[in-house]
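Researcher: Sequence recovery benchmark, item below. Answer with residues only.
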């Protein structure tokens, strides 16, 4: 069983920065994908960025060049550094772990609110 706890959200002005953290408890090993998703009011939850067990990263076009996903395996923690934030980045941000091999399972955190004011 894996539990995920996000932190680091809050209010910020346009152009500002925040760093989100996702602390994981439990075993995350083998082949897996960790990611950040976000859900704005009235919209569906969507992908922001992912990082694989091999270290490959992927970003949605709207955040490329502004957001950086990373992880610290020693701390079992994933991060999302968000720079040059825009009002359209306002959303609840969720941490996700998709375990693929040797077992398949999917875990979500409770979410952290990011509010960007213009």
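Model:
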């Amino acid at each position: 069983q894996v539990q995920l706890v996000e932190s680091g959200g809050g209010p910020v002005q346009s152009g500002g920065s925040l760093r989100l953290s996702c602390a994981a408890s439990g075993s995350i090993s083998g082949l897996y994908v960790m990611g950040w998703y976000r859900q704005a009011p009235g919209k569906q939850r969507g992908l922001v960025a992912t990082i694989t067990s091999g270290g490959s990263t992927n970003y949605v076009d709207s955040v490329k060049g502004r957001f950086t996903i990373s992880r610290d395996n020693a701390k079992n923690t994933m991060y999302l550094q968000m720079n040059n934030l825009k009002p359209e980045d306002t959303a609840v941000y969720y941490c996700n772990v998709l375990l693929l091999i040797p077992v398949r399972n999917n875990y979500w955190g409770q979410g952290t609110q990011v509010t960007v004011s213009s």
